[in-house]
Amino acid sequence: MSLPRSYPPDSYHGTDGEPSAWLRRDDESPDLTLATGGTCEYLATGDQTQGRFGLYRWTFGEDESGPDPHFHRSISEQFYVLSGEVVLHDGRAWVTARPGDFLYVPEGGIHGFRGGGGASMLLMFAPGGPREDYFETLARGEQMSAEERAGFMDRHDTYWV
Questions:
Q1: Phi and psi torsions of 133, nearest 5°
Q2: In the record, which residues are listed under signal peptide (predicted)?
Q3: What pairing do the DSSP bridges indicate for beta strands 39-44 and 54-59?
Q4: pLDDT by residue (tens digit) across 37-96?
Q5: Neighbours of 23 (CB within 10 A)
Q6: What pLDDT does 5 receive?
């Protein structure tokens, strides 16, 4: 007698597996260069993972930058510091995170981040929403009226506190 599996339902129904993995090499150019001099690399977008998650490598420019405290209603967000120091808001206070530190923020969790000096981190969203449009629009510095900006933030599940 086998015990019931505690995994989600199968999404692959073949019997032999398939060659469906893909690799993004470390030496590929960043997908986005920010006005701050930082970069964002789209390691795995929500489209590529069928909406399961989105994973990005965020590298800060020399000067400190990053969003103020905010929350998301439909996505969780995870931070893993790769290099340098990143200051993370954990919903209660700003805390300094160093390489190897990890912060998980569930849906509704207040958070923010700031970094500079070329610090880098992995940024993951689950499920994988269309964050690329959010990053790219902000990077272009598009001028928006207060009403347009509110609509943009609502479309991208971002609510400032």
A1: -60, -40
A2: none
A3: antiparallel
A4: 999 999 999 999 999 999 999 999 999 999 999 999 999 999 999 999 999 999 999 999
A5: 6
A6: 81
Under a CB-based contact definition with an 8 Å cutoff, are residues 73 and 64 in contact? no
**Which residues make beta-bridge pairs with 122?**
57, 80
**Domains of the chain as residue ranges with CATH:** 32-160 (2.60.120.10)
pLDDT digits (tens, 9 = 90+) for 110-151: 999 999 999 999 999 999 999 999 999 999 988 999 999 999
Residues 73, 161: Cα–Cα separation, whole Å: 13
What pTM, to 2 d.p., does this model score?
0.93
**Measuring CA to CA, how many Å separate 39 from each of 16, 34, 108?**
39, 6, 27
In degrees and rounded to multiples of 5, residue 147 shows phi and psi of -70, -45
What tokens appear for 75 in the block? 């996505």
Asked if residue 123 lies in contact with residue 131, where contact means CB atoms within 8 angstroms, the answer is: no
Does the pLDDT value for residue 3 go beyond 90?
Answer: no
Q: Give the list of residues 6+ apart from residue 156 with CB closer than 8 angstroms, or none.
A: 129, 130, 131, 133, 134
The Cα 82–Cα 57 span in angstroms is 9
Tokens of 56: 């990005």
